[in-house]
Amino acid sequence: MEMRDIAKELKENAYPGRGIIIGKSADAAHAVTAYFIMGRSENSRNRIFVEDGEGIRTQAFDPSKLTDPSLIIYAPVRILGSRTIVTNGDQTDTIYDGLKSGLTFEQSLRSREFEPDGPNYTPRISGVLELEGGNYSYAMSILKSNNGNPDATNRYTFAYENPVAGEGHFIHTYMHDGNPLPSFEGEPKLVGIPDDIEAFTALLWESLNEDNKVSLFVRYIDLATGTYETRIVNKNR
């Protein structure tokens, strides 16, 4: 698979929607994940990321302007032991509960489907990073309608064992802007992952469309110790 330039991917797409990146830093020292949200409506743009324990959650920037919290207020990142769960919706909690009860990542998502926001039927994208005993692997998932048909759900899971240093995978909700918004197609895109969390955070944030970007989360997890560094950038301040 050809490696994509993540900056170019973002700069040339005004509305990829919400996106997840997971991989390993170029120096092989860190597991890396990033999650961003974008918005076209006032309700979607009225959000920030805030830390919530070891994870994060979305929160209304101006509570007086919040009209419908159902699909925009959730915990995108939660931690369960050696696992980090990253998603674009409240399926974070579904995965957390499933893994805790002994289900696999894929099994945990069997009870969920795409978001009920027709005519877009936004895909649910999810990822899980697992660090245990010096080993690191990750998986990504997308649940989407069958070419816009809400009567059928298409489920795809992609698993990556022994990730290569400097490589990651990028999945997002929409191919590009549109009405209705076209769902992501194909495998997660292969992208480069640098050593420096500051540089990676700046690269992603500066590459996202200025009008539509809302918030960005980036985390680098030390593969030797499990300690981590987190960066959060919010357009609303």
Task: Characterize the structure shown.
This protein is mainly β and 237 residues long. It has one domain (6-234): 4-Layer Sandwich (Glutamine Phosphoribosylpyrophosphate, subunit 1, domain 1), CATH 3.60.20. The chain has helices at 6-11, 42-45, 91-100, 105-108, 197-207; strands at 19-24, 30-38, 47-52, 55-60, 77-80, 83-87, 124-132, 135-146, 149-161, 167-172, 189-192, 213-222, 228-234. A six-stranded antiparallel sheet has the order 11-10-1-2-12-13, covered by helices on one side. It has a five-stranded antiparallel sheet with strand order 5-6-7-8-9, covered by helices on one side. Strands 3-4 form a two-stranded antiparallel sheet. The N and C termini lie far apart (39 Å). The model has no long low-confidence stretch (mean pLDDT 97).
Q: How many DSSP E strands?
A: 13
Estimate the strand proportion: 35-45%
Helicity range:
10-25%
Order of helices and strands: HEEHEEEEHHEEEEEHEE
For the record, the count of structural domains works out to 1
CATH classification, class level: Alpha Beta
CATH topology group: Glutamine Phosphoribosylpyrophosphate, subunit 1, domain 1
Any guess at the CATH architecture? 4-Layer Sandwich
Structural class: mainly beta
Query: Looking at the chains present, what oligomeric state does this protein adopt?
Result: single chain
Instruction: Give the name of the CATH superfamily.
Output: Inosine monophosphate cyclohydrolase-like
Shape: globular
**Tally of individual helices:** 5
Mean pLDDT: 97
* Sheet with most strands: strand arrangement: 11-10-1-2-12-13
- How would a textbook summarize the main sheet? 6 strands, antiparallel
Q: Outline the low-pLDDT stretches.
A: none
Measured between the Cα atoms of the first and last residue, the distance is 39 Å
Task: Output the radius of gyration.
Answer: 16 Å
